Amino acid sequence: MMRVFALIFAAMLALPALAETAADRFAPKRGFSTDIWVEWQTTADMVSTPGFLDIYPDYPRHIPADAFATLHAQGFDTVRIAADPSPLLALAGTPREARLLSNLRQRVLEAQAAGLKVVLDLHTYPHAGDVGDVNAILASPALFKAYLRMVAKVGTKIADLNPDITAFELMNEPTQDCDAIYSDPSKSTWPDKLKRLHDTARKAAPKLPLVLSGACWGGSKGLSVLDPSAMADDNLLWSFHTYDPFSFTHQGASWTENILMFVRGLPFPPSRVTDTIQQRVVDAARLRAKASTERLAAEATRPALRELVMDYRNSPSDTISAPITEATTWADAHAIPHGRLFLGEFGALWFDDAGNKLDPASHYRFLLAKRSAAEAAGVGWAVWSFSGSFGITDGKSVLYSGVCAALGMSKC
Questions:
Q1: Largest CB tally within 10 Å, which of 161, 251, 323, 328?
Q2: Phi/psi at 133 (nearest 5 deg)?
């Protein structure tokens, strides 16, 4: 028996080590994302408003010039620059498109000058009826081809940048295939599109690490059904996002299309929900629904709200870590080092529409738990986002002190 073990051990030692790639050297540890837009407008408004797209993305209008350097000094090593591709699609083939591409390159260089690695993220998202709507792009062969052309142009523009500190994320949160992923992954259509995106970007930017994700909003489940060998490429970072437990992270969010928009006051962790807290949350949510003109107000009945709170209260003990475990299990099955995984988004809404903090202590506990679970698994992360209702700062350069401590930063 000992001889058998010795032979196995010798065979393992004989296996060739994985060749290091730029993705391994990039290896994001602790990052943050910029906001998609600070000044929300439709693409038509962006394009028609004189001067608006002179700064693209628009965040430099609203934050101090030294913000990135300050955050780097506090402990961040990576920034994920979220760039809505809609203006690039709308202005394809025009001189203004060239200016936008130059602006993207400039944003990357500015962040790197501040000491940060950069993930340039083409941040698609659902905005029905507008240029760049991710659902439309994924549903239309013609729009997807236009998107591929845009990816090639962006990749070419940044291809010569240092690959040890520059990564290119090809599409944020592809929304398709949720039904297939949970029922029959063989019916998924995303793998073919992902391969085409990869091949297009790799041709345009041969040396840069590319950031890829699974379907169904870029979650760990979508990642877990992908076959990475289809890319035949080790210079990749594999991204996944997690906002679990969703009832905590998105309570009060009007865009959820869920009665959760009326809920406030759920503490973290779920074990902190007592009978008294449950009753208070349900009563307050019911009052908000009765006073609301939202379409979903009629669905926010007392039984429905009680069920929502009870489901949150009974969340599994591994709710925080389960998506991370799912991603690392997939990586292990495909011999992908955990350093090539990237928790590209996590966070929680903690400001209401009036700008009031909902429950700071619970927010800090959530950030600490999610961040710690990722780091324990050897997975780098980027918190969402710099400012706004999920913000880690007040829109300036200094982290909220509680957020700073929860994220394990120095100089809080």
A1: 251
A2: -60, 125
Domain-embedded: residue 253: no
pLDDT value, residue 14: 40
∠ CA 274-366-68 to the nearest 5 degrees? 155
CA-closest candidate to residue 383, choices 351, 353, 342? 342
Residues 6+ apart with CB under 8 A from 403: 363, 364, 367, 392, 393
What angle, rounded to 10 degrees, do the helices at 141-158 and 190-204 form?
A: 30
Q: What was the pLDDT predicted at 410?
A: 87
Query: 3-class DSSP state for residue 51?
Result: coil
Q: Is 176 helix (H, G, I), strand (E, B) or coil?
A: coil
Residues of the chain scoring pLDDT < 50: 1-2, 4-16
Burial 370-398 (b: 16+ CB within 10 A, else e): bbebbbebebbbbbbbbbbbbbbbeeebb
Report the SS3 class of residue 212. strand
Looking at 287, 312, 337, the residue that finishes a domain is 312
Q: Does the residue 13 lie in any domain?
A: no
> How many domains is the chain partitioned into structurally?
2
pLDDT of residue 324: 98
269 plus 165 within the same structural domain = no
pLDDT digits (tens, 9 = 90+) for 163-198: 999 999 999 999 999 999 999 999 999 999 999 999
- Closest alpha carbon to 408 in 133, 58, 29: 29
Distance CA 131, CA 133 (A): 6
Beta bridge partners of 274: none
Is the residue at 4 inside a domain? no
How confident is the model at residue 316, as a pLDDT? 97
Q: Where are the alpha helices (DSSP H) in 114-140?
A: 134-139
Structural domain including 281 reads: 259-312
What are the CA-CA distances from residue 364 to residues 85, 269, 316, 319, 403 (Å)?
32, 11, 20, 16, 6
Do 232 and 264 have their domain in common? no
DSSP string, 139-150: H-HHHHHHHHHH
**Rounded CA gap, 403 and 401, in Å?**
5
Nearest to 363 by CA among 379, 383, 382: 383
| Nearest CA-CA partner of 259 in 309, 219, 216 | 309
Burial zone of 17 (CB within 10 Å; 0-12 exposed, 13-18 middle, 19+ buried): exposed
Q: Are residues 210 and 61 in the same domain?
A: yes
